[in-house]
Amino acid sequence: GLAAPPPGESGGSTTPNIPTFGFLFDIDGVLVRGKTPISAAKKAFQKLVNSQGQFLVPVVFVTNAGNCLRQKKADQLSHILGVQISQDQVVMSHSPLRMFKRYHDKCVLVSGQGPLLDIAQYLGFCQPITIEILRETYPLLDMVDHDRRPKVLHLPGVDLPKIEAVVLFGEPVRWETNLQLIIDVLLTGGCPGKPYHQASYPHIPVLACNMDLMWMAEAQSPRFGHGTFMVCLENIYKKITGKELKYEALMGKPSELTYHYAEYLIRMQAAQRHWKEPIQTLYAIGDNLMTDIYGANLYNRYLEEKNSRKGSKGRIQAKVAAGTRSATISQDDELDHTWQNELAPATATNCRSVLVCTGVYNPHTEVPSDTRESITETVFHGHRDFRFDPALVEPDHIVPDADAAVDLIYQLENFAPNQDIRTF
């Protein structure tokens, strides 16, 4: 609950307990492993709320999961952590798609699992089509599984509208079906019932959420994530056409878009409380060097660039430094502009990365004695379109778990949560 304070109680810089920092929590590997809560997380959250259950500091959950609606994720978190979480505190990997209004009225193919049509419509898409709808319309396309091949061959009675973009929400269940049909859509310029067409390059736009190669569930070692599915798609496309698969946009951590959106939600929480001091420092707590840490450090670099050279020139250079090959600068700048309009510019001055040891990161295996070795491409688990920069995978702090992270941050910020006096 983020209720507004009673009149006359809106704190200001004179009140000692008005925070100028906020938390960005990853979920998998930090708060839970699969469906199992990590015990330190519950302890951490007791320190983040007062006796009425109100947050003492702005908190946003930034997850690369994309298989459900924000409200469902908020309900799961409330249950796990024993505190009331609202959907306005949750950033899913697909949340930034709300900003891509130019695709909302187009017919888009969506890939992933969970209530995909509900998610797409919630984000603003008017004409989403699932892989399932596609294979029912064109039953001859899905031929790998002999048991699922159509018994009677008939031509489709209806033609679907031309598909104008592909949105990858997360890893699907039947990879071979999704890989085949997405390739069909790309190679036919959005008309998968027709034969492949040489001229359909550059292909129709592809937007992808969540580039995680792996994630940590209950198993002893990490499991395939959506990034692994994307590696398959990119390589199949290149093998067939000899050309690179291009992304119109990449969302989810470590993409800058995601951190912009998360910071906007942090600002909204502070505004609802009528806290006068701007939020200056974001603390991103995660378990994955290639997504949580890389993303937080990349956003920190963006904030530093923005503050040292205000104006579009600095913005473009920050983009280039981030090495996003997937989008040209002009397109990128236009994208950034959409963001500025939607969310207003960032006010934070820095974003600190805090690594916990309860998930993907394993302190015993990940740090080679010779750090030069880690600079080779072979250990870069990040996405193809993010250039590997060793400085970006160095966390500002390493702590055992989420509870230790909260203690450390309170100490760094000199913040003494006086939980029972209502400071707001």
Number of DSSP E strands:
15
Mean pLDDT, all residues: 85
What percent of residues adopt helix (DSSP H or I)? 25-40%
| Spatial strand arrangement across the major sheet | 5-4-1-13-14-15
Strand percent estimate:
5-15%
Q: What class, by secondary structure content?
A: alpha/beta
Radius of gyration, CA atoms, in whole angstroms: 22 Å
**Biggest sheet character:** 6 strands, parallel
Spatial separation of the terminal alpha carbons = 13 Å
SS element count, helices = 11
InterPro entries: CDP-alcohol_PTase-I, HAD-like_sf, HAD-SF_hydro_IIA, HAD-SF_hydro_IIA_CECR5, HAD_sf
Organism: Chelydra serpentina (Snapping turtle)
GO molecular function, one term: hydrolase activity
Keywords: Hydrolase, Signal
Task: Characterise the protein shown here.
- The structure is a single chain.
- By secondary structure, the protein is an alpha/beta fold.
- 33% of the residues lie in helices and 13% in strands.
- The strands form 4 sheets. A 6-stranded parallel beta sheet has the order 5-4-1-13-14-15, with helices on both faces. The chain has a 5-stranded parallel beta sheet with strand order 7-6-8-9-12, sandwiched between helices. The protein has a two-stranded antiparallel sheet with strand order 2-3.
- Strand 2 and strand 3 form a beta hairpin.
- Helix 1 (39-46) runs parallel beside helix 11 and helix 5 crosses helix 6 (226-241).
- The chain is elongated and about 70 Å long.
- It starts with 20 loop residues before the first strand and ends in a 12-residue tail after the last helix.
- 42% of the residues are buried.
- Residues 4-14, 320-334 and 371-378 have low confidence and may be disordered.
- One of its GO terms (cellular component) is mitochondrion.
- It comes from Chelydra serpentina.
